[in-house]
Design a protein that fits this description.
5 helices; 2 domains; single chain; 159 residues
């Protein structure tokens, strides 16, 4: 075997070892992420659930308050109407961000999944409203329906 052939064999073996090592590390990381919830105590899970449900309640109240406000000057108050609409959009988008930031890793997965869905839907509603989509638009109406049903599912999970 000449020198070039030996180098090629050594490089091939090194590449195989590095590849196998990477696969082992990736598999271990995947295994750990799938079973990370098992490391939480019952108290940590209960606390995470309570904190998540409290955060959802805060967001629900904020969204309800800010999406149902009327301009101080009545329907003819254009500036007031724009301010109220802007505040509603902020409450929707920021409410979704708040939920994602407050979602504890120890939160039971069925609840965590619904909270992520609710947060994403709120942000979609807010972003589309900012882009001028009205509530009677079929896509926006569907988002609103999804938000309502997801919120109801979360309320059941938080009992």
């Amino acid at each position: 075997m000449n020198l070039e052939s030996r180098r090629l064999v050594v490089l091939t073996i090194i590449s195989l070892v590095v590849s196998a090592s990477a696969l082992v590390v990736a598999g271990w990381a995947l295994y750990r992420s799938d079973y990370a919830k098992a490391d939480y105590t019952a108290e940590q899970i209960a606390d995470a659930k309570a904190n998540t449900c409290t955060a959802v309640d805060v967001v629900r109240r904020g969204v309800s308050l800010n999406t149902n406000l009327m301009p101080a000057g009545g329907p003819a108050d254009i500036t007031g109407a724009q301010a109220v609409a802007a505040n509603a959009r902020v409450s929707l988008y920021d409410g979704g961000q708040y939920l994602m930031a407050r979602l504890d890793p120890a939160t039971p997965e069925p609840l965590a999944e619904k909270v992520r869905e609710f947060a994403d839907t709120l942000m979609d509603i807010g972003a589309n409203a900012t882009a001028g989509t009205t509530n009677d638009d079929p896509s926006q109406a569907e988002r609103l329906t999804t938000a309502d049903s997801t919120s109801a599912a979360i309320a059941e999970l938080c009992k």
